[in-house]
Amino acid sequence: xxxxxxxxxxxxxxxxxxxxxxxxxxxxxxxxxxxxxxxxxxxxxxxxxxxxxxxxxxxxxxxxxxxxxxxxxxxxxxxxxxxxxxxxxxxxxxxxxxxxxxxxxxxxxxxxxxxxxxxxxxxxxxxxxxxxxxxxxxxxxxxxxxxxxxxxxxxx
Length: 156
Description:
Number of strands: 0
Structural class: mainly alpha
Strand content: under 5%
Oligomer: single chain
């Protein structure tokens, strides 16, 4: 038997999921904040999946694409963030496949040019300039080998 609290929670959580892509863990935490019992929470999660309000693969792809395009995050940082959200290995791989390698390399180059020109105002030594630029890009989650390869190609 569905209680009044359960019915209200069902409407609220459906609206919450319709607003933007959510992962199961975010939704589960939100449902617990409504002070529902564990079996009610799991029942609602199952219902949301059946009704396609939540889909882990769709969430992972949207999350990875957004973080890459908007925040200029690399694959390492995106992977870590998705793991913190308890996303499966399968969904992680699918999300990483959606990031186009040409765009990925172009982003590294773009970040390198932008940051090195900022640092060049304070650092005149070419090696220190490349080192500081590389550290910044690597901290954004990009693979060190790709970063250094890109910096070798660029004349800073």
